[in-house]
Design a protein that fits this description.
The chain is mainly α. It has twelve helices and no strands. Helices cover 72% and strands 0% of the residues. The chain is globular, with a radius of gyration of 20 Å. It starts with 8 loop residues before the first helix and ends with a helix.
Amino acid sequence: MKDLPALSRPASQSAFRALHTAFAMSPESDPSQDHPRAILPALFSGLLAGGVNGFLGIGAGFMLVPMLSRAAKLRGSVAMGTALAVTLPAALIGAVQYQVQDWAVVLLVALGCVAGAVLGSRITLGAPAIRRWLGLLLLAGGVGMFLRSPLPVTGPPVAVPLDGVRALLLIGLGLGAGLLSAAVNTGTGVVLVPLLALGAGFTQLEAQGLALAVTVPVSFPGALLHFARGTVASGLLGPLCVGAVAGTALMGYVAHAAGNPTLRLFYALFLILVGLSVVLRRPAPTEPKPPTESGSE
């Protein structure tokens, strides 16, 4: 789970400023304390993040991390820990609503995602040129989802035998999703859904349900660690969870009503926007190093 790409900088900045005014929290606010004026904004933020989570299956943290860090002015570790804690119940509700049953598949993909995220954190993929190429890969995935013919659905889902080759494929897709998401600074679900839909033959609804289910084992250890470290804004956790669970349940229902073809087109458009934001994102300016004594002589 990573930061939200800035799709429209002026619009996003004004939206974050409005949310920050509503939260009425300062960077020095104690995240463990209740903030009465922040309850409604937190509820709204959870509802919005949960709605995107339920409709696209990308994980609530995709939107919650930037909301909490920019609007609520929580420091990065607290924003991440709080988002992970909220993501767990929202993802679990989403997996149940999407009727995910093959948890062996979920665990195999989750194993690959964890390995990919660890690998991505240890190699340098953040160079602007490489990030642009990876953004182009996301763009290509979005276009591929537009062009892909929907799989015919004539009855209940038929379980595909899980042999050794398919198990390796699922682990490999999870590995690629974890690695790519770490490289382009997006949530794992953003990359995992198209990989499952295009690379493993799942329908759009199946892919989104699996991505939500994978979020549970992937996020659980991180959430426990943040709770142990005290980097969870417990004062905001209640309304955020209520909003995220409600938004996930509501928009999950809408996703099923929309059906595979319509949902695939929405996701393709979303993936193209994410790819464009990665390609067009300007690298953060680097601060000049202070001159040394030898260099100043």
